[in-house]
Specification:
The protein is about 80% helix and about 0% strand. The chain has about 90 residues and is mostly helical.
Length: about 90
C-alpha cells in the first residue's frame, strides 16, 4: 500500500471506468438508458461512496490491514460490476 492518496485515485479510476463502460454498452445497444444500466451505475456510485468513506476513517488500529481490505473489496466489487455489464 503506497498511500491513502493513491488508494483514493485507484477507487476513482476503477469506478469511473466501470461507469464509462456501462454508458458505452448503452450506446452500443440502442443508445437509451435501461433499468439494468441505471442499476449498475447506481451500484457503482454507492460502492464509490462506501469505499471513500472507509478510506477516510481516521481511528483505525491497523491501518495497513484496513487499507489492504479496502483494496480487496474494491477488486471484488469491481469484478461483480463488470460481470453485470458483460451480461447485458
Amino acid at each position: 500500500m503506497a498511500s491513502k492518496k493513491n488508494l483514493k485515485k485507484d477507487i476513482n479510476y476503477v469506478i469511473g471506468d466501470i461507469i464509462e463502460a456501462t454508458y458505452l454498452t448503452e450506446m452500443a445497444n440502442g443508445g437509451k438508458p435501461t433499468a439494468a444500466t441505471d442499476a449498475i451505475v447506481e451500484e457503482a456510485i454507492s460502492t464509490f461512496d462506501e469505499l471513500i468513506h472507509r478510506v477516510n476513517i481516521r481511528k483505525v488500529e491497523d491501518k495497513k490491514a484496513h487499507f489492504t481490505q479496502i483494496n480487496k473489496d474494491l477488486e471484488s466489487k469491481a469484478l461483480g460490476l463488470i460481470e453485470k455489464i458483460n451480461s447485458l
